[in-house]
Design goal:
CATH class of the largest domain: Alpha Beta
Subcellular location: Cytoplasm
CATH superfamily of the largest domain: Phosphatidylinositol 3-kinase Catalytic Subunit, Chain A, domain 1
Family: Belongs to the TBCB family.
Organism: Photinus pyralis
InterPro entries: CAP-Gly_dom_sf (IPR036859), CAP-Gly_domain (IPR000938), TBCB_Ubl (IPR045172), Ubiquitin-like_dom (IPR000626), Ubiquitin-like_domsf (IPR029071)
CATH architecture of the largest domain: Roll
Number of strands: 12
Largest sheet: 5 strands, mixed
Radius of gyration: 21 Å
Helix content: 10-25%
Shape: globular
Strand order of the largest sheet: 2-1-5-3-4
Protein name: CAP-Gly domain-containing protein
Structural class: alpha+beta
Length: about 240
């Protein structure tokens, strides 16, 4: 039997998208000590996919492939996932049917007719008050958004900062941007690191938010940023 590392209980916020219908869902919060098998069960309720056929792929904030979550017995926290990454759900059964019937003329049901049906994924979610059809979902979402706005107001552009991202090393840098990022949910802080430990040059999907050398820039959530007196570390290469 495989020996898996025990991960201390924690959470990670992940975007969810699916194959076949190009569906995307709001960011979800998952415990890191959940198994991939149990994660699939949760994703089945969110996406309408099937536990027995779905595959899960992880992509970073720059839409670059990170890994596949292939071991059902592994813990979510054993994979290199960070807040804001995206889980792409591939449903083999859905793809198989799509390939078999790709030449068949598609029937598009009117929205009002679809809303009246009781055998759809949406009807199931509404009946069981799951996800966005749960009143608590909106309350929690609004609360999280307000808390994030309060945090972003404490961040000052030009200030020194320390960045602590789950499963990552502490990084020092300077705040060069704060606010919204086109294509991403919520508030973000643009940081120029002291060392080339970032993922970009202050640009996201072709739009520039601040300027810095390649691999020195990053966009992080305000809850992962602490502003303060964090002087830049000097590295004297003449000393041993």
């Amino acid at each position: 039997m495989a020996d898996y590392k025990v991960i201390t209980s924690d959470f990670v916020n992940l975007q969810i998208s699916t194959s076949g219908h190009d569906l995307s869902f709001n960011e979800r919060r998952f415990p890191k000590d959940i198994t991939i098998s149990n994660l699939k069960a949760k994703l089945e309720l969110i996406t309408g996919g099937s536990c027995s056929t779905m595959q899960i792929q992880a992509y970073d904030k720059d839409n670059k492939f990170v890994c596949s979550l292939v071991d059902d017995n592994a813990l979510l926290g054993s994979f290199p996932l960070e807040n804001g990454m995206r889980l792409y759900i591939v449903d083999n059964f859905a793809i198989k049917n799509q390939l078999e019937f790709e030449n068949v003329e598609k029937y598009e049901m009117a929205p009002e007719m679809y809303a009246k049906r009781t055998d759809t994924v949406k009807a199931f979610l509404v009946k069981n008050k799951i996800g966005q059809y749960n009143e608590e979902y909106y309350k929690n979402k609004e609360k999280a958004e307000e808390e994030e706005k309060e945090l972003i107001n404490t961040v000052e552009i030009g200030s020194r900062c320390k960045v602590n991202v789950s499963n990552g090393p502490t990084k020092l840098g300077a705040v060069l941007y704060k606010g919204l990022i086109e294509g991403l949910a919520g508030q973000w802080v643009g940081v120029k690191y002291d060392e080339p430990l970032g993922k970009n040059d202050g640009t996201y999907k072709g739009k520039e938010y601040f300027k810095c050398p390649p691999n020195y820039g990053a966009f992080v959530k305000p809850q992962n940023v602490v502003c303060g007196d964090f002087p830049e570390e000097s590295y004297d290469l003449d000393e041993i």
